[in-house]
Amino acid sequence: MSPSSTTFTVNQNLFYQRSPPLRVEVFQASELNKDIFERLNQHALATGQRHVGLAAAYYGDNKCILSSLALAASTEVVVINLPRSVTKARKRLIGDFLSSAAFTKAAFHLDTLVAALHYDFRIPLAKGLDLLSVAPLAARESLDAMIKTMGGESEVNKRQVDALFVHRQPEAPLLGKDLALQAWAAWNTAVSSIMASKFYEIPVIDTPSLRPEHLDALSKLVRDAQRLDALKPTAVQNEIADNHTYEGGKFQVTCTRFKNRIRSDAQARTVSLTPAIQTTYNKQRIEVRGHDDSLVASGRVDHVDGRQAKLNIRLPLATGGLKVVTVGKEAPTSAERRRATIVLHALQGTSSILSKPFFKALWLPTATDKPQEPGICIPIASTYPRPLNPSQRSAVAGILSSAPVTVIQGPPGTGKTTVIAAAVWCIDACAAAHQRAVYCIAQSNVAVKNMAEKLASVGFYDFKLVVSKGATILSAPSWFSLVDRHLHADFHYDWHEHLYYKIDDNVLRADQLSQDILDASLQLAGSRFILCTLSMLANPHFGIVTRILPPHTIVVDEASQIEIGDFLPMIELYSTTLRKMVFVGDDKQLAPYGQGQIDSLRSVFEMKHLRQDAIFLDTQSVCFHPSRAKFDIQCKPSMPTQLGGFISQNVYEGKLRSVHKMRDRCWWFVDVPQGEESMKGSSWINMGEVKAVVDVARKLKDRGKSFRVITPYDAQRGMLERNEDDFIVLSLVRTRGVGFMNETRRVNVMLTRCKKGLIVCTNRGFVQGQARNTLIGLLADRADSWAPLKLS
């Protein structure tokens, strides 16, 4: 034993079988030597089982770096505390042990551990056994899966397993004792005669046999998913109307906000009424709280139908002013589970994803696959019924080309959706492409709806827009705040049906799709152009569509907002038929969810080998329809020329041109010297700015101006569902901390929402002082920015 190491004994309480006390020895990485691993090696071989159990702990920040590693065999456990930087000599000692083929290394969630060993320290692991691979893929995180993997309820203490593995408090650190028990439980499970036949069938993980670039890509996919999961909130207050009812143990409520509504997939989530005794198979529960935020009761979601939710909760008294709170992290979505499964199988060598052309195209810069078929050669000008500027023509040509991947960057108002519509029109006009199924997708429902409306506006109706009810989908991101990444699929039903009235005849609901090939074909009405969200592609009800119309070309709008790993399930599912991927977006606007906290997250636009060949839409203009002799109301108008010029110079390196009939001054700053920021919950408010905004809004209304009010903070939000209008009134809220203004991409989105004018309500001293180097500060510093507001 090293002089500075710590030694103690632990009695295991997980398995009903009797076991001698475990001797646990804790070392710092700097104390490691060959003797430590040799002793552990002898214990691993002494029983004849030739297994070592592993468990890991990670630093509590959102970087999720490996902080401790536990290795267990029979009655001995070694815990190694790892600094963020480990010397080469110590890495070699750990690597030599973990890469030995003399014994099997077993762990629960070995994929996460293997990725961390490589990603953080470049330490290899051979002959690794992922124990939870015997569980159903959709339930790897559940208590039920853990119990069955460990031998069943007759073998283990369910309550102790739950406390150690499943329902640990997220803020509680994994101490040496618990980490040692987890590692020993992995060893004891791996050598169990009850599970031996099932474990024998699991392919081992052997990282030395993987190509370095493959292991790099897989490890980053695991780490990104791990860090995103760490960002999930542990409690969400569900906004409900006051007209709730309570009868017969059922609490009926009406949700008033889509973003934080009670989710339909929570129907099976239950908790006991005694919070200290968790007996559930998941981590979430529904709580009812009073005015003072005190707990009134907790229970489960019984049923959700659109805005209406029925909760199975025993309330002591039916009173007004109650709050409903979802407590606990949201469980992984089906898309997240599928992504994790793909990576696990790739590490185990049972998936061919690493050889798929589009995996190589997106993740491996040096990989090149030649086009498998010619592009579509159609004179664009003679087919699309509306004029396109030169950069739009280049973008459409890129979509129609034989290149397997095309990336298009479109700043605000440059016609990204127009380019997609023109490409669809050209593909439809090409006789040689009549067998090609084209899927136009986006992360948000709103973006998909906008593509559909653009197609309809040019007289193209040969498409189907598939929406969902009851399955998990990605919702439209908030313009100015990071929202829950995974919202659920009632976006259309009972919430936003009114948004679809222009294209109602083209809308199909996934749960109403027939699962009979002939009937579903009739529902699709011969269309080969399908519009849907990215997550819809993995919806079980949607499979009938892709069987009838195997995807040939996938066009992704809002691609700059999608973390690149989210494309993994799509690439795996459709690799045999997919020939073309098009990514349309703007990396100067909203980033993938979480990038503000996780700067290593990437969209396709952050992949250098893809970004360098992106086609740039360089012209902001108002679409003009010659046959109507007026500005086309279906085209998204650009911002006024002066504001467009400022954005071009400060965001787009001067490459963006603005064509607009308005060339006069178009922005105003309103000084709010009495305004002061203050916290409200986890957000911010500024009552002085509230009054100033109301005053400005009153003036705009009196002059018959169309306007919207926007703000970067939920607590101060005054904006409606649609974020663009002639005039935008912006409330900055902050007066002491720069906050969101440090994020140029978010500010760029806010400043580019107006058609005629932007009015910013803020504290002049703050903007010209602490915030002077932000995009807002630079705009405020322009001539006449603070001149009195005059509206004709």
UniProtKB/TrEMBL annotation:
The keyword Hydrolase applies. Residues 639-722, 724-763 form the DNA2/NAM7 helicase-like C-terminal domain. Pfam families: AAA_12 (PF13087), AAA_19 (PF13245). One of its GO terms (molecular function) is 5'-3' DNA helicase activity. It comes from the Eukaryota. Keywords: ATP-binding, Helicase, Hydrolase, Nucleotide-binding. This is DNA2/NAM7 helicase-like C-terminal domain-containing protein.
